[in-house]
Amino acid sequence: MSSDADAIRNWWHTSIIDMEPGRIAFRGHPIETLIGKISFPQMIWLMTAGRLPSSEEAVLLEAALVAGVDHGPQAPSIAAARMTATCGVGLNNAMATGVNMLGDVHGGAGEQCAELYYDIAARMDAGDALEAAVETGLDAWRAVNGKIVSGFGHRFHKPVDPRAPRLMALVREAAQAGTVDGQFAEIGEAVQANLSLRKPIAMNIDGATAVIFCELGFAAPLSRGLFCLSRSVGILAHAWEQMEQGGRNKGPMPPSYFPKYDDT
């Protein structure tokens, strides 16, 4: 029977960090061997995936993180962080408010798109050709999620989301160099082609970053977590800018405007 000390030690168990007074190691790497030696994207990879990536893999991850940092105050997460910053709280509170806005509708498209890509890849592994796997995969997606396919189309950026082509070009370069195999780039482009049969529709940033996260082997739920890391940079910047600008209790619209009252 375990002693009380063992029960306490075993309450949490982790392979991420080994820490005791005077020693810190992440995934078996002493912290002093990492500081100044690896990049922040490499550290993110080590912590989430359990190994150090190659510099080429880290460059591709970094590109996805850079592309998603901000989309302006019209994005609910950014607007919420700016409003929070006028309420007399700290930067951490404003950042937490913004990150907590990143849900299934605003912030979850990358995870959803990655799930679609992985489903299509599984159908290909089972013997379907690319086009057939895309068709049946999209049918299955729509049966559960409706007609909107996450990762494609954009309410502002028409006909092209300027971030997606650049990211896809980097994936193609990485595939040519052997850093990734390019399967999910082909899947993403095939989904876009299928969706464009009726009306042209472009891949957006969520579709492109999902390609990258899948190419690099990250599980679909991590796509959302990695996006949250990326967008938290923009949330921080906007919250800090709002603090510098000042303002008190700023709401979602100027005080001279009032919501429409429905007289029922």
Automatic annotation (TrEMBL):
Keywords: Acyltransferase, Transferase. One of its GO terms (molecular function) is citrate synthase activity. It comes from the Bacteria. InterPro entries: Citrate_synth-like_lrg_a-sub (IPR016142), Citrate_synth-like_sm_a-sub (IPR016143), Citrate_synthase (IPR002020), Citrate_synthase_sf (IPR036969). Pfam families: Citrate_synt. Its EC number is 2.3.3.16. Signal peptide: none annotated. The keyword Membrane does not apply. GO terms for cellular component: cytosol. Pathway: Carbohydrate metabolism; tricarboxylic acid cycle; isocitrate from oxaloacetate: step 1/2. Residues 245-264 are annotated as: Disordered. Gene3D superfamilies: Citrate Synthase, domain 1, Cytochrome P450-Terp, domain 2. One of its GO terms (biological process) is carbohydrate metabolic process. Belongs to the citrate synthase family. This is citrate synthase (unknown stereospecificity). It comes from Pontivivens insulae.
